[in-house]
Amino acid sequence: MKQLKVVFQNPNYVKLFLATFTSQMGNVIGMTAFMFYLLHRFSSQPSYATLAELMYSLPTLVVFFIVGVVVDRMNRQKIAANCDWISALLSIGLLLAVWIDWIPLIFVFLFVRSAISKFFLPAESSLIQGILDKETYTVAAGLNQIMGSLFLLFGGALGAMAYWSFGIMGAILIDALSFVASALLIQACSIQQQTLLPNGPHTWKDLKLKLIATDFKDGFAYILRNKLLLLLVMGFFIFGIVNGGLSVIPIFILKYKLAPTDYEQYSVWIGIIVGVALLAGSLVASVLSSKMKLYQLIATGLLISGVFLAAAGLMTNLYLFFVLAFMTALALPAVNIGLGGWLPRIVAPQMMGRVQGWIGPLMMLSHSLTLGLIGISFPAVVSIEALFLIIGGCFVLAALYYFAVLPRFVEDEPLTPSQTQSAENAPSV
């Protein structure tokens, strides 16, 4: 509680937290409504819903080489705010594309807006690392997880209400206004120059191809030299697989197996159930983070979630599926809080952008590959039960590997700039 009070006494953190909240709230509403729109418009073609998800993930593979370089070289506050402003304008473009009913243009706007948004999280994470102390990183990670849980708890219901009440146009407008609010909050922050520009001032003219290539390579080398950091980054890769699968398979199992005629209403219920579980799990994991080693928190969360997720896909009873979905989601926050609280402890501030710049594309690569495989194979080749078993099995295997490997590393040893070279001698996996 003391650390939580310290975090919320920081006015810059409060503004960044609220900025992230408003941005994500509108985005969740917009995405949920858009999923309903596509499933209504193309009910016999579930691949369109999968394609929409790909438009959120694939852009990472287009901009990943420059994201970390831009965040580490340019003003991080301006980057985060401009991401919101541009996303708001692109949401208006999306609104017009829906109005004229041109599906290819809709996907273009989704793709470009997603590409712009990929700069937001590395910039925001780097700002938070600079304005908080090491002891409060796990608290901030727990708050982010709680916020995400609230979105899942209320986002699906709000998205459905917005779609039913105002249609897809109204939902997209809410999405655009949320980006505007987020941008204003970020601009209201007063942050030290060292946090904004840890590598000194640069201009866009400085970002030449040679510098971009060098910085991108340095970020990759930095991760490889620190074996602990490499293992944590691979954890995000696995999380991308699960995020990709869970973005579509719950609604698929409802529509094509458990509740074909009432899947929309039950999708709201599954959102509420998962949201409650994540919220409860976030509170539990936040408490456990001070009592358990972070590697134990991560691996235990992976193991429990994987087992229950695999079992959920085998259910033929809707209510038993809800129970297992609850148990799956209850353990997930332990993974997120463990990874999110551990990462800023071992990454030098000067390198955070480039590290985050690699995490994003790795997650989206696994996310996109998962969605692509689902789009190609489901339902012709792979059953919905097999999808649950495959994704749950990935979690279980990752948990066993982490239990075996992560105890070799010391959690609380930060990797400062002077230690970067010594990281080459870290224990090999």
TrEMBL record:
Lineage summary: Bacteria, Bacillati, Bacillota, Bacilli, Bacillales
GO terms, molecular function: transmembrane transporter activity
Compartments where found: Cell membrane
CC per GO annotation: plasma membrane
Keywords of this entry: Cell membrane, Membrane, Transmembrane, Transmembrane helix, Transport
Record-annotated membrane-spanning stretches: 16-39, 51-71, 91-116, 137-157, 228-254, 266-287, 294-312, 318-343, 355-380, 386-405
Alphabetized Gene3D superfamilies for the sequence: MFS general substrate transporter like domains
Transport keyword on record: yes
Source domain of life: Bacteria
InterPro entries documented for this protein: MFS (IPR011701), MFS_dom (IPR020846), MFS_trans_sf (IPR036259)
Residue ranges of every copy of the Major facilitator superfamily (MFS) profile domain listed in the record: 12-410
Protein's membrane topology: Multi-pass membrane protein
Name of this protein: MFS transporter
A Pfam family recorded for this sequence: MFS_1
Record organism: Paenibacillus elgii
Keyword Transmembrane recorded: yes
